[in-house]
Amino acid sequence: MKKIAIFGVGLIGGSFALALRKAGAVQEIAGVGRSMASLARAKELGIIDLACTSVEEAVKGADLILVAAPVAQTEAILASIEPHLASGTIVTDAGSTKSDVVAAARKALGGKIAQFVPGHPIAGREQNGPDAAIVDLYVGKKTVITALPENAESDVARVAAAWQRCGSIIHRLTPEEHDRVFAAVSHLPHLLAYALVDDIARKPHADLLFQYAASGFRDFTRIAGSSPEMWRDISLANHVALLGELDAYMVRLKELRGLLAERNGKGIEAVYANAQHARQNWIRTIEAAEQQSKQGGD
Questions:
Q1: What's the pTM?
Q2: Best exposed site among 17, 31, 124, 287 by fewest CB in 10 Å?
Q3: Is the separation of the CB atoms in 50 and 22 below 8 Å?
Q4: 110 and 229: one domain?
């Protein structure tokens, strides 16, 4: 690619840029963001070549545009891009929800919707901003593409190829399938982690509790270190599916509370054993996939 433009040069957008640069897949990278200080830092780190103050300057001559900002900003960003969007330029995103993003894209892009190929890289860290960007963030990680009926397969392939050059493994879902899946395995865990840490922090003896919190607490709550703004937007954007998963989880908690109140050791152990077995199977599946990725093949 001769040029790409990235809206939001933080962890996700910055890592995308670094990986493509390392792969020799792009000649010039333009960055757009809310903070010129952040863009200047991204340029200083070698993530971008151009820190753009105008959307027109950023997207002019771009082969690919990545929107890597909080999902609530998607419509405004796409609306700002639309007047300057040339016919040969493809737009994609990295949002953690897809149905709302697709709706925003249809509203903002109108007749140019075929040029928008929605995506979601399944990778991240708890740090934010350009300093958090790392070149190998996507290596061996999945990227889900939720292609639209209007998309040309060649454009979908171009987006997929960009993520593959970053080391990512491509999967495809519909926007609706995507949001149901990630409500269960990503959005709910973040909500729970935030809720637990918030609950502990509000207790009058919070300092004492945090003093004795060890690796189990750290591992369970790691994702509560993520961007509150980003996860606020994700939670609200996918609130219907997330509410369904939260309600189902609360039913399981109520059942487990009943077992605990009854001091039903056999029942509690059965829940724990089922969870342990499911997690071990999941880990084995991940390890097998990672090994296959290193060795090559389908």
A1: 0.88
A2: 287
A3: no
A4: no
